[in-house]
Amino acid sequence: MESSEFFGCAVRCGKAFTSNAYLKCHTASVHNGKIPTCDICGKTFVYKGSLKIHIDNEHNCTIPRCKACGKKLTRKDSLKLIIDLVHNRIKHPCHACGKTFTQKVDLKLHIDSVHKDQKSHLCDTCMRSLRSVKVMLSRVAS
């Protein structure tokens, strides 16, 4: 997918998304009224995946715990992250400038926005494509 490709809402509410999956979640919850809701406690969520995590953690008692330090986490992928970051101290270096990142996704965003000058964040207010969330937030704050 090109970074300049956005998926606009067919209902014409003015929203655009960076992936078709986000657009589908938006359409289902905002326009079709299909809000993921916990049948046990009634709590609502934006994404079905968040509902599943909630049910596993709150009602099925399957909270992941780090064996090294005992810390409880809300998601299994967070467990891998804490092991890599805290216990194994894994860093991901940028081969262009040497800056290091704790997560691969942050390294990819850095390379795309700084070294490839890709603009992948759509401002809901002005509909401009910006290179980072920080740039977008600084525009909103000013």
From TrEMBL:
A GO MF term: zinc ion binding
SUPFAM superfamilies named in the record: beta-beta-alpha zinc fingers
Regions crossing the membrane: none
SMART domains in alphabetical order: ZnF_C2H2
UniProt keyword annotations, A-Z: Metal-binding, Repeat, Zinc, Zinc-finger
CC terms in the record's Gene Ontology section: nucleus
Domain of life of the source: Eukaryota
Signal peptide per UniProt: none
Domain C2H2-type intervals: 7-36, 36-64, 92-120
PROSITE patterns: ZINC_FINGER_C2H2_1, ZINC_FINGER_C2H2_2
Protein name, per record: C2H2-type domain-containing protein
